[in-house]
Amino acid sequence: MSFRRSVDVAIPPAAAFQLFTDGIAQWWPLREGFSYGGERAASIALEPRLGGRFFERFTDGDELQVGEVIACEPPVRIVFTWQAPGWAGATEVEVTFSGDDQRTRVEVEHRGWDRLGPGLEGEAEGFRNGWPAVLGAYAAAASDVAAG
Question: How far, in Å, CA of 30 to CA of 41, rounded?
Answer without folding.
Answer: 7
